[in-house]
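Hey, resending since the last one bounced:
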Amino acid sequence: MAWWSDLVEEQPEFAERVRARFAVRKHGTMATLRRDGSPRISGTEFDFGPEQLRLGSMAGALKALDLRRDPRVALHCPTEDPPEGDPGSWGGDAKIAGVAHEEPPGDDGSHRFRIELTEVVLTRVGDPADHLVIESWHPGRGLHRRRRH
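The structure tokens again:
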């Protein structure tokens, strides 16, 4: 099992850049699996604590019921366009795949989950701006960087 704290310990600079992409706005996107196996896209807020990455939802929300049934989840940072004329200064696009573990409900019955990491990816424009740099981290494999033209 790998948690947010494991990534921070192993790759602190990469983890900080990923966290920064999720912090550009309050709401990001998550994907869960519906009962029939089709994807469900939902808006959500993320909490990057010192030890765990967590997310929550209102009591009875379909995305929470999806996670109870099938805990696989994909998270995408809030989107932000690269600056016009200077795409190399864009911080990138971050994605996290993992498994949601339910925690005790909040006082209002809200759902709370901590996320076990299975993959973390950061994609950005390279320098010069003629290629993408794709950095991916997987538990047990570490951080890999590749270029795509």
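DSSP finds three helices and nine strands in the chain.

Sorry for the duplicate.
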